[in-house]
Amino acid sequence: MKFPFPHWRRVVFALAIAGVPLAANPATSPAPAAATPGDGLFTEGMTPRITIELGTDALRSLRRDPREFVRATVREGGKLFNQVGVHLKGSVGSFRPVDDRPAFTLDFCQFNEGRKFYGLRRIHLNNSVEDPACVNEKLGSELFQAAGVPAPRVTRALVTLNGRALGLYVLKEGFTEDFLSCHFKTVGGDLYEPEAGHDVDQRFKRNSVAGPSLGRAPLQALAAAASEPDLERRWRRLQATLDTDRFLSFMAMEVMLGHRDGYCLARNNFRVYHDVDSGKMVFFPHGMDQLLGTADLPWQPHFGGLVAQAVMETTEGKRLYAARFNSLFTNLFQADALTRRVDQLVLEVRPLLGGTNWTTLRDESDRVKQCLRDRYASLKAQCQEAALKPLEFVAGICHLSGWRVAEALPGGRMEEAKSTDGLRALRIVAGGETAAAWKTRAVLTQGHYRFEGRCRVAGVKPLPYGVHQGAGLRLGGHVRQTGNLTGDSTWKLLAADFQVEHDGEEVEFICELRAASGEAWFEVGSLGVVRKP
């Protein structure tokens, strides 16, 4: 496997997760490498203290237009930076107003051209609402880098705003020329981020990287390659427009880390760069505060991103993805080493925290470690499973088996049992706000199909939010087509039509219940696939 990322970074990561001290021996160490942007800031164990001072007008502006830059004074380690550009950041789940515990973007060149912070134009200070342990972004960044995928470097910082201590934040470098210069020989290609659209065939925003722009032409070329109907020709076109080697690692790491809010699964939180030296597109990960949320996410899930789908539909892409996933899982995703790395990251900030802040951080880091162990165990079991074989139909019908519990929430109950009228069924009992499911997977050849089965419900009350309610059948990666069974009902036949575009495609079948209370039964003997003319 080619690793375009510098070898020394992979060595540092391997030593870090193994718990090996990182101090160099002057007598045996090689000559130091040339300085890179961010040196000193991302030194192991470094936790800067950053103070932000905003005037009355700046505060008023951020209350009114939180995404617009205002001028601020920033202090760190005895250094004073006047006229720093600051605006608030964060998505629906993590955004907080300026009078709360906001997340910030700091641009040191916004109002003072050429000025840098540890050699960096821009940094982000994340309030880590979705990751109270403040380790997910750091761990994800290190793993992507070790896999040869450029990713923003991460540390932690103590942040104060106008004399008000905000606590521990996650500090990330921005996607700027400084970041690109650490990974590419020539800096100046187009750097894109999602705007109105969420995939490469839609409208993207060009980032502020200096240099002549090719507009949307590189994105359009990649989208055209991904949409090529001839699969053998598609793979050749993808190789010409996409850094397929790095993209395979990008795909594998997003899935391995359970990055459910990333590009491959959700078409979210990513950047795309046109490398002017190779002429190919390179994907970068972003927004990794919600890693490891689903322990049993399949290692070959339904991919939402157009480019990921396009790769997996080709014979060569699917083969190379499997080989890359197994290689990275074997060499990088080791539960014991990763949990030790979490312990190390937590201990680095222990002297800075006290009382409930330390207790919360410690408890949340224990949760992250358990998520790592659960994810490792699931992936190890998945990799040991025999490869799925295409379903065999008799008179156009095939029975589905191999159902497993997935997405169960605490307080509920899931079991395979006999219904009150003696039929073998998959049972889901809601426990408070429940979104639970039974799942199985199968391989199908190209064609039109119907997923069907019988279901009945008792006392099912819908959740106060969401589109799909009650019990129903669904295909992985698709919205629910069947009716929403709520209240009480006798056995009803539910059906969802779908199409398989290419031979050998894996399809995920789901029996789910979304409810505040009640229970659902799915008759095992009725759950199957019908081949349509």
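Second entry:
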Amino acid sequence: MDPFIAALRNPVCYPHPVQVVEVLETHISWVLLAGEYAYKVKKPVRLPFLDFSTLEARQRFCEEELRLNRRTAPALYLDVVPIVQAPRGPVLAAPGKLYAPAALLDYAVKMRRFADGALAETLARRGALGPVHTDAIARTIAQFHASLPCTAASDTFGTAAQVSGPALGNFDQIGALPAAAGAGDRLAPLRAWTAQECERLAAVFEARRDAGFVRECHGDLHLGNIAFIDGRPTPFDCIEFDPALRWIDVMSEVAFVVMDLHAHRLGGLAWRLLNAWLESSGDYEGMSVFRFYLVYRAMVRAKVALLRGDAAGFDAYLALAASLARHGRAALLAMHGFSGAGKTTVAQALLERIGALRVRSDVERKRLHGLAASARSASALDAGLYAAAASERTYARLAECAAGAVRAGYPVIADAAFLRRGERDRFRDVAAGLGAQFLIVSCEAGDAALRQRIAARAAQARDASEAELPVLERQLASRQKLAPDEAAVTVRVNTESDASLRLGVESVAQRLGLAQRQAALAAAAP
């Protein structure tokens, strides 16, 4: 151990009660766990991607780390503390105490410690990470991204060259490592795919940059850098040493978390988190670059595994990257059913089961009017958000989002009532024009169950849907059966019991042949 750090393991070095000091080490820093606090000390190293070789640089980057991480974790990141020479050896400077400049040895970022089991990664490994966690992570990321500044026009962040350089550079760096000898046959197809995507998406990268999607993000957002503190997800330890690694497309950031969930064999939660983030952000257009970033993030992890001497991890991340690079089956599903029939519940189970994107009419309708999904519009029947013109705009928005995602190679679930034949035909035509399989998923329950669900939902007032009993009664009074020619593309799902719902979801998965795709992704995970 470095003598300087060994000296700081003495509990008397700290201006607060400490019994034992533990040391965690990475290739660029030491973290000293001392009592209720943690102190991060940067190593005096110069590497191809950072330079901490001078005291001035370490101070500057400690201050930058504090500034950046206070955006997401202000309760964790407390201060930058000098480490000074005292008669008994190096000590962490006490607050308010003055020291001679000659006594200054280094700097540390002072952080509040959290429980060992608080990391999302720890929860994932224990099998304790669930839907509530991933929904909260998605909301937190979306709110964080919405608060961030966009890159300036004079900067090069997010340009096609800036995106493709690191992605292709990964392969050069991996190939230069002796441990990668013999992996050429597996690396070559992925490098060729990455190069092809860099060229194909160059204009898209530039357009997203111009549209404001390149922002000063976290940069290293995976499950190991998210802690649940007081029940809330808290991203921490963002990248401070290279602006180019954090001034990125927000889709690159989301892709890292989603890829990490796949790597932990939590594919259903990966799709759940992605969909929750999309519903919060509305950035369905970003799915055009999402697969590229998924593969990029998997390849970064493959490189890190190799640098750490983890040959098995390297092989597994290569396999995961290859699996993530493949397009899913082109499919467009239209949910169908009365208010309260369980369409959104079935769609949620489906997207996790088959790996799909969902666009919800209840969410997009409000987005078009500048409202949050949970907001109440107080619109009367056939008025306001639910007037005929507003409904037409809503279905047009759903069709636009769905078509873009299908083109990008994702199965899509359009979650709306689709009670009118014209609405269903519109989406059937979209699917036909894209060469995608079309399926109607008709959710069914008895009238009494529908009324009971609507009343309960209205009382809770938490769902994006505002449909209440008058809406349902009108639907029931004017009900029409699906046309005979639609029967061949319809799967009926009885939602009156959990067992029948699960059976219906499995029927859809088998009908589309997408259950195998999810299994293949899980098999490829590390």
